[in-house]
Amino acid sequence: MQNSVIIITGASSGIGRQIALDLAQQGKYDLILVGRNQQRLMDVVATIQQTTPTKAWPYRYDLSQAEQIDQFIEDIDSSFQRIDALIACAGYGQFKLATEFTYQEMMAMFKVNTLGTMYLTTRLAQRMVDQGFGQITIIASVAGQMATMRSNVYSASKFAIIGYANSLRLELKRKGISVTVVNPGPVATPFFATSPELITYYQKVKRFLISPQYVSKKVIDNLCARKAKRDYPALLL
């Protein structure tokens, strides 16, 4: 029986990395791992190859750039006969007062969290329509439903991707393709140690922190359940 082929973006770190490792343990998926950091992608692939029989391929692309998304689609079209699922984890955040943001900082966050994810998902959705099946999971955020101080631009980027996913679900539901939005609360990853602003934000939200392993389990469980929306932890809402 042919393994399902799953694309995971943001696979070099955080939630995406954990999902890749956990799916690999099941031994029934072929994994296409996408990220910007070649060395960290290779480390994930090496871990998978050393500990599981799963096939995994690293693809270094910057999904904030439309031309790189086009090249990625061209590459996988020539290499894979089917794409069963997309798990879109790529994203990042800056957390500071709205008045402190530059236009370039705002646009950079939207290019990764929103525009790049939308464009990649749109391209893959067309392929799934053509093949008659597929699953799309977009990792958004509770911040896309409930804004807090200093989450301003990040929240806006997540509100936008949730709106896109909800509309896409309506468009694809009669075509054999499911669309799920997963909205984690703050996740305990090295992300929060990258700047003084994030360390301050971390101190305010740490009592709500959940682990990448927790989110990964919920995402993988939903590959069978195909629910429209998942909020973790639900108590935040």
TrEMBL record:
Keywords carried by this UniProt record: Oxidoreductase
Signal sequence interval, chain numbering: none
Keyword set includes Oxidoreductase: yes
Gene3D superfamilies from the UniProt entry: NAD(P)-binding Rossmann-like Domain (3.40.50.720)
GO MF annotation terms: oxidoreductase activity
Family annotation (CDD domains): SDR_c
Transmembrane region(s): none
Family to which the UniProt record says this protein belongs: Belongs to the short-chain dehydrogenases/reductases (SDR) family.
Name of the molecule in the record: Short-chain dehydrogenase
Lineage: Bacteria, Bacillati, Bacillota, Bacilli, Lactobacillales
